[in-house]
Amino acid sequence: MLFSQEEIAKSDIIEHLDGKDYYIHTVEQGQTLYSISKVYDIAVDELLFENPDARQGLNIGQQLRIPLVSREKLITDDLRKGEFRYIFHIVRKGQTLYGISRIYDVSVDDLKAANPEWAKGLDPGQYLKIPMKDPVVNDRSMVVKPDAESRKMHTVTGGETLYSISRKYRVGLPELKAVNPGLTSNLSPGQEIVIPEYQEEYIQQEEEKAFYEHIVKEKETLYGIAKKYRISIDSLTAFNPGLSKNIFPGEVIRIPQRVNPDSYITHRVNEKTKLKKIASKYTISVTAIKDANPDFRSRVNPGDMLMIPVGPPPLVSPDDVHVVITPPDDIPPKVMDSDSISCYDKMYRYKKDFNVALMIPLYAEEAREISLKARSGALDPRKHKSFNFIQFYEGFLMAVDELEKQGLNVRLHVYDVDEKVSKTIQVLQQPELADMDLIIGPFFSRNFTLVSNFAEMFDIKIVNPLTRRTEVLSNPNVFKIKPSRDAQAALLIKFVKIYQPKANIILVRNNKFQYEDEVLEIRNLLDKVVPYGVKVPNASIYDLIVEYAKADTNLAPGVLINSLMVEDRMIRTAELENLPADSTFFSNGIAEVIYATDSVYGVIKYASVVRNNLVIVLTNNEIFAPEILTRLNDLKDTFDITVVGMPEWDLLDNLETDYLLDLKVYYFTDAYYDYDDPDVKSFIMDFRERYKTHPDDYAFEGYDLGTFFLGALMRFGTDCEKCLPYYRQKVLSTTIKFSPAYPAGYENL
Questions:
Q1: Of 22, 160, 293, 702, whose CB neighbour count within 10 A is largest?
Q2: Both ends of the chain: CA-CA distance in Å?
Q3: pLDDT band at 366 (very low <50, low <70, confident <90, very high)
Q4: Segment holding 227, helix H or strand E
Q5: So where are the chain's domains?
Q6: Inter-residue contact 696 to 664 (CB < 8 Å)
Q7: Contact 201/222 with Cβ under 8 angstroms?
Q8: Element housing 576 (H / E)
Q9: How high is the pLDDT of residue 202?
């Protein structure tokens, strides 16, 4: 049973300690770390960092130091300032600057420069900034040939090959050929070859391809091998596809020849078990494993990540293994050519197990707070954030299940990442994340920046599922599924060119201070596609005059009006009667109406009675949008009107359906679902059967995103972006088509 507790009051005691201002909070009965953190709007991990004793539990009367300005706020403010080229590392017990620098491949000096407070020492739980490297563009054609004094020469001997020479001097074949014009693989003894200067980048690439080959001995276990080589079992299985925990003598296991500088490896718990059992598998004491994992007691659950102490790294490499430099031959070849024929010639289902991270706001803390009583039937999901995105997850799982039946091998890692920056930083500490092939999310923009930086650092593809903001396109590995507002102007011009080439165009906005830049851009683009003028047949104008005369009860039957004002021109009936087979020319101008001052009469002033009027309304205002539609609907019997709503009318919920249909209203949306489509009907039925509820938009989006990206991984591998322009995966919504975006990444247009 859950008991309600009295509301916690924020302390009015403030003290200045160690250069910072703190609230001093006294713990009272029934209070928890989570409930206190909610009152002070601070992450639980920061509470624990400032109050290490609280890890053992809270006591009545215990005093807690709570910063007036939380880390969450400081980091959020930094993220809002503009370009943010960092990720964060949370310091663990026993870690050093050098060890951390090796994890992220940055120099110790760069770490010190980004973290001036390092001189005070590192404390467990401390946030350390990890600076991003500036992007490097390598142009092989720009390699400079060394001058005569500094260059090194090699004389070819019998049996040498170009590859063996490149290995000897640790340079790449492209560098060798660049400084030796005309050099081929046909070498002759005595031939002299110029050796370029030391290429650090190439050596690093080669070192990453170096492996130990360990031959399993009698009574050896995978746990013992993992401990010996200081590598997690997850990493062992990643480098050895098909490897199981039941190994046998003589089996060869590949182990990357990279030294783990930390004094521990990680272990992912796969089943509910005791720490004692895990300790025995690694032949370490229970005390040692508890000391390394103070947050765990005697039992652990599936998904828990433990640190296994393995001691300091050895000074020499193992002497009972064979070192090989060639990469594994069962890694699928990359799709190198972006040509569509090449992509599909090389397309096949990869046997590799792909690691995919889904970072979705599940609000697990709130879920734990939901009353048990509400579960009996009184629970309203709309009142709990925990249910906001659950259908995205459910739709995504349906896509995974379908693709697995087609041959996809995927390990899906789900992380609860909401709008809290500190929570995102905690997730990024998970060691398996660096081995992901694809990250989907986070859903909130400022957290996406942190994870995007992480993905860039470890060269991982990352998908932004919701935002329309172009700021996320700062990483060449980013895929933005929602088209930005900037893309709408170009789409509008395409719409006008194809469907409304002869329309009379009127731009409408509520006041002159809104959408100035958008109006200017639209005008400039329309000027390039709208014709200088339009010819309207005289017969059509004459028929209109006859129609008006019949409707005018003040005129005698058969009598016509003498003239008609059309687009600010007086058209005389007699002229039309004299030239019935001719046309009247109307010049094209793009009119603009400021509704706050001109009202609907501004539209009437510029509207045409002899051709279609394309009224482009720029607003996101939930009051103005239905107001202008109501007024335009009143004019539909007089004028032929088509409306285009911009920029985000798909987000407006209060638009009358009748007006949308009567006025032929168009607006831009990133997804449209045809409920008469058999595939859509089938998805809805399957979703209802599986989850006992009707799918919402997030369910469709989760299914489509999973179908598209996991399908691309399965068919083209991790370099799938080269083939996405030619990839046509059927989804439930309109077609997904990615194009390179500015300044980086890809956008669905």
A1: 702
A2: 52
A3: low
A4: helix 222-229
A5: 143-207, 340-483+679-748, 486-667
A6: no
A7: no
A8: helix 573-578
A9: 36
Residue type, 49: F
Q: Are 414 and 303 in contact (CB under 8 A)?
A: no
**171: number of Cβ within 10 Å:** 20
**CB distance 192 to 155 below 8 Å:** yes
Q: What pLDDT, in 10s, does the model give residues 102-140? A: 778 788 888 888 888 777 778 888 888 888 876 533 233
Residues paired with residue 305 on neighbouring β-strands, in sequence order: 268
Tokens 């719409």 sit at which residue? Answer: 495
**Cα–Cα distances in Å, from 203 out to 167, 169, 325, 471?**
9, 10, 12, 35
127 and 90 in contact (C-beta within 8 Å)? yes
746 in Cβ contact with 739 (< 8 Å)? yes
For residues 726 and 375, what is the distance between their CA atoms, to the nearest angstrom?
48
pLDDT at 566: 85
The whole-angstrom separation of Cα 153 and Cα 260 is 37
What whole-number distance in Å separates Cα of residue 563 and Cα of residue 545?
A: 8
DSSP 143: P
Q: What is the pLDDT of residue 650?
A: 67
Helix (H, G, I), strand (E, B) or coil at 529: helix
Average pLDDT over the chain reads 78
618 token code pair: 């720029």
Provide the token pair at 127. Answer: 């946030």
pLDDT at res. 518: 84
H/E run at residue 238: helix 233-239
- The residue ranking higher by pLDDT, 191 or 369, is 191
Q: Which CATH superfamily is domain 340-483+679-748 in?
A: Response regulator (3.40.50.2300)
CATH superfamily to which 143-207 belongs: LysM domain (3.10.350.10)
Q: Is the pLDDT of residue 741 over 70?
A: yes
Helices 390-405 and 678-691, packing angle to 10 deg: 110
Per-residue confidence (pLDDT) for residue 398, from 0 to 100 = 95
Q: What is the pLDDT of residue 373?
A: 43
Read off φ and ψ for residue 24, nearest 5 degrees. Answer: -110, 105
Q: Give the amino acid at 427.
A: V
Enter the tokens of residue 210: 């170096």
Q: Is 408 exposed, middle or buried (0-12, 13-18, 19+ CB in 10 A)?
A: buried
Measured distance CA(296)–CA(42) in Å, rounded = 23
pTM of the model: 0.58
Neighbour tally for 585: CB within 10 Å:
10
Position 158 confidence tier, pLDDT thresholds 50, 70, 90: low
**Model confidence at 712: pLDDT above 80:** yes
Listed in sequence order, the DSSP H helices in 286-435 are: 286-292, 340-345, 364-369, 390-405, 421-427
Each residue of 542-554: pLDDT tens digit?
988 888 888 877 8
Q: How many CB atoms lie within 10 A of CB 510?
A: 20
Is the bond preceding 318 in cis, omega lying within 30 degrees of 0? Answer: no
The answer to whether 349 touches 406, Cβ cutoff 8 Å, is yes
Q: How far apart are CA 25 and CA 112, in angstroms?
A: 34
CA distance 402 to 394: 13
Give the helix/strand (H/E) hosting 154: strand 152-155
Q: What is the CA radius of gyration of the chain?
A: 34
